[in-house]
Amino acid sequence: MNYRQLGNRDLNISEVSFGTWAIGGSWGSTNDDESLRALHKAMDEGVNFFDTADVYGGGHSEELLAKATKGKEDSVHIATKFCRFGDIHDSKTYSMESVRNYCETSLKKLNRETIDLYQIHCPPMDILKDGSVFEVLNKLQEEGKIRYYGVSVETVAEGLVCLKNPNVAALQIIFNIFRQKPAEQLLPKAKENGTGILVRLPLASGLLTGKFTAQSTFEKDDHRNFNEHGEQFNVGETFAGLGLSKGSELANQLKWIAEDRGNMTRAALRWILDHKEVSCVIPGFKNVKQVEDNLQAIHVPSFTKEEMEKLNYFYQNEVVDHIRGVY
């Protein structure tokens, strides 16, 4: 395993880490025994960082992490998120009373005394500009309930606002071959500020595995079924905002990235890791096989300068006009 520093903080994390949205819920059926086997496999391979949220399965993914990391609390780091159990547009959701309650609930489910990275879970821009929530997080940090805090954002503009606060240790962003905009301003600015970058949805909800077609179907409780057009939350969280039909069509044009890299999954993750501003990429998983495949991204060849330019040209000329929603 290779490790990278979280911005300029004293936290070194595995460059391929894992997100636990899928094992908590909203990605179809799950099996807790298999989820736990996959978590243990990841740790056996050197993964020391996992991302979760209090709303993933109503806290179920936090509970699974507590079981899997028992006795490893000092060596395996956990990031979790808050605010989506409340009204994200209501300032009361970000009050000291509310955030303390969210934090203590997560600590209990995680069976930990401190959360390594506590993140605001995709709040609206007006909350970020107001900034009161950051004072709340400063207080929780002083109390030792959280080690560092950060923000999971939907847009580059939101990320740039967060970077004005020097205590924001990390930004969690959507960044992949279909969503390259952060590379223009956000990544360089984050590096300049010493802010870590966590990359979620690196495979664009599975599009960049190359396994889907316009006819692919998903289970009823899978967000790729119920949020393709942004019916439940930000459209960019599902298929990079492209939709299944257009997204699978575009992915088919990227088959070449798998040459000498095993498959498209490994190649797509490698492309992200080739951006040195990135602290870690956090693909999802539901079984051991997916964990093993994702971890192979560490070993495949990096993209050449010419390949990077080709992919940026593809993004600018074939992808951008089809992305829905603000990003």
TrEMBL record:
Residues 16-312 form the NADP-dependent oxidoreductase domain. It comes from Chengkuizengella marina. PANTHER family: D-THREO-ALDOSE 1-DEHYDROGENASE, NADP-DEPENDENT OXIDOREDUCTASE DOMAIN-CONTAINING PROTEIN. The lineage of its organism: Bacteria, Bacillati, Bacillota, Bacilli, Bacillales. Gene3D superfamilies: NADP-dependent oxidoreductase domain. Pfam families: Aldo_ket_red. This is Aldo/keto reductase. It comes from the Bacteria. One of its GO terms (molecular function) is oxidoreductase activity.
